[in-house]
């Protein structure tokens, strides 16, 4: 019978009761221990939502950077196209100007030649 009582006493001392023994002989309320512990549940929720937001931000930033690079490439191609058009127009204008000068020069030569021959407007007219 003594063994049975000692076993019950030992199991009772091992069970967790609302009061826990911090130091030998000093008891504290379990609520005080709970309040001293750090909370993990709300931190984990915040961190997971924060991580989700960070992932979304990274995706958005990567898409924005890709869009920026595509836009800059398109602008570069457009400016090159415009520059090529300007150069082509300048070349054609220069060719036309030179051709007009050639025609004028040939007319002047013809006029001089006709003058020498006596075929000017005044003489023939």
TrEMBL record:
User: Which domain of life does this protein belong to?
Assistant: Eukaryota
Keywords of the record, alphabetical order, are: Coiled coil, Nucleus, Ribosome biogenesis, rRNA processing
Q: Where is this region: Disordered?
A: 1-65
* A GO-annotated cellular component: nucleolus
UniProt lists compositionally biased (Basic and acidic residues) regions at 1-12, 35-44
Q: Where in the cell is it found?
A: Nucleus, Nucleolus
| Gene Ontology biological process | rRNA processing
The record's family statement is: Belongs to the CGR1 family.
Give the protein's function.
Involved in nucleolar integrity and required for processing of the pre-rRNA for the 60S ribosome subunit.
What is the name of the protein in this document? rRNA-processing protein
From what organism does this protein derive?
Phakopsora pachyrhizi
């Amino acid at each position: 019978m003594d063994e049975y009582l000692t076993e019950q006493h030992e199991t009772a001392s091992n069970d967790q009761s609302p009061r826990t023994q911090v130091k030998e002989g000093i008891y504290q309320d379990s609520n005080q221990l709970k309040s001293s512990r750090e909370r993990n549940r709300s931190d984990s929720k915040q961190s997971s939502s924060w991580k989700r937001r960070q992932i979304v931000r990274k995706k958005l930033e990567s898409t924005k950077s890709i869009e920026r690079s595509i836009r800059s490439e398109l602008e570069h191609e457009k400016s090159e196209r415009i520059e090529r058009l300007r150069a082509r127009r300048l070349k054609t204008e220069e060719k036309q100007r030179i051709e007009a000068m050639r025609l004028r020069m040939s007319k002047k030569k013809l006029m001089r030649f006709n003058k020498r021959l006596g075929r000017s407007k005044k003489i023939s007219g």
